[in-house]
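Quiz preparation item.
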């Protein structure tokens, strides 16, 4: 991991006070050198100044050439069997790198998967990936979609041959990984570098946390934040860090009869049936539908689930304290206020950042 920068991170606990005025919107990022290299140019990750240290593996330094190669691969349908689908097909920047309102993603052969497309946000702070945590590293995760028969349906051996025979990729790989032959491992390394570069930390909420004067909350948003961070809404137990996720796995009471078994199926642990990864709530307004299977179309439906729709099962998370009564039993005003707060997490700069867009787009 990279070393500490001696920077005090702002506590997530907010002191709700009067509306601050008179300050200009400032650049919330500081550049962090990720590697020192005599070959490819070190990449300076732009880390929000109120975030903790990113978790960059020591043996996977980020470089300018590596990130750009990963970006090109991410958007290139060359990695799919019929040249029609790329990673970006299911991870659209305008929707915080999720699918466009699809309940579950659809692969190149028109076959539906059984999971909702997860947002690609702040994965440089992630640990174990995918809804069931089956990928221990981001590099492992990047390898999975290409040979998956439902997703991109192309064996990596053929994908590597395509890259070797392409007009551009041999030079791009040599720039990112000098002297090394193109392999699936290097392709995954580059895509992981690009995904780690995708950072969101400049929502109105972030400015409010840092008490920047331009960030003004309405009375409903202030009350919604209080509900979120108290036992009334009980959201903070799983989403109570500046990352808006604990990067853990929970059964949040979606079903009494658990059929989509999540972590428990992959690790062969029945006690973890129904456990799925906590998604970040950053840009949650843009990432509908919700939950691992996309069952909820709106934020209002999500809040209603936690209010009255929680179902008890043998593997329900102990954090779901009100499961026996169906949920938190929120009042209508509280539900509205909670949704209002969640919408302050939208980061317009993030979804419009050209550094994350298709390099071939005009």
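Solution:
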């Amino acid at each position: 991991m990279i070393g500490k920068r001696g920077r005090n991170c702002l506590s997530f606990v907010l002191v709700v006070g009067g509306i601050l005025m008179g300050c200009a919107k400032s650049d919330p990022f500081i550049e962090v050198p990720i590697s020192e290299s005599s070959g490819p140019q070190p990449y300076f990750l732009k880390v929000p100044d109120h975030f903790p240290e990113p978790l960059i593996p020591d043996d996977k330094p980020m470089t300018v050439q590596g990130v750009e190669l990963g970006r090109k691969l991410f958007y290139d349908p060359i990695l799919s069997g019929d040249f029609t689908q790329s990673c970006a097909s299911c991870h659209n920047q305008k929707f915080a790198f999720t699918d466009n309102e699809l309940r579950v993603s659809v692969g190149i052969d028109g076959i539906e998967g059984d999971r909702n497309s997860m947002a690609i946000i702040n994965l440089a702070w992630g640990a174990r990936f995918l809804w069931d945590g089956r990928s221990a590293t981001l590099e492992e995760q990047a390898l999975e979609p290409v040979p998956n028969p439902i997703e991109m349906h192309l064996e990596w051996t053929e994908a590597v041959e395509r890259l070797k025979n392409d007009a551009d990729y041999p030079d791009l790989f040599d720039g990112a990984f000098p002297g090394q032959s193109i392999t699936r491992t290097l392709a995954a390394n580059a895509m992981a570098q690009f995904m780690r570069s995708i950072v969101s930390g400049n929502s109105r909420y972030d400015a409010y946390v840092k008490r920047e004067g331009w960030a003004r909350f309405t009375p409903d948003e202030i009350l919604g934040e209080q509900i979120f961070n108290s036992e009334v809404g009980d959201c903070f137990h799983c989403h109570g860090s500046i990352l808006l996720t604990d990067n853990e796995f929970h059964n949040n009471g979606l079903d009494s009869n658990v059929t989509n078994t999540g972590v428990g199926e992959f690790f062969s642990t029945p006690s973890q049936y129904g456990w799925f990864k906590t998604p970040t709530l950053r840009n949650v307004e843009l990432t509908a539908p919700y939950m691992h299977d996309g069952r909820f179309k709106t934020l209002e439906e999500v809040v209603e689930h936690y209010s009255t729709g929680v179902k008890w099962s043998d593997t329900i998370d102990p954090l779901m304290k009100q499961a026996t009564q169906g949920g938190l039993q929120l009042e209508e005003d509280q539900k509205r206020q909670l949704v209002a707060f969640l919408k302050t997490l939208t980061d317009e700069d993030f979804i419009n950042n050209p550094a994350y867009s298709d390099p071939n787009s005009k």
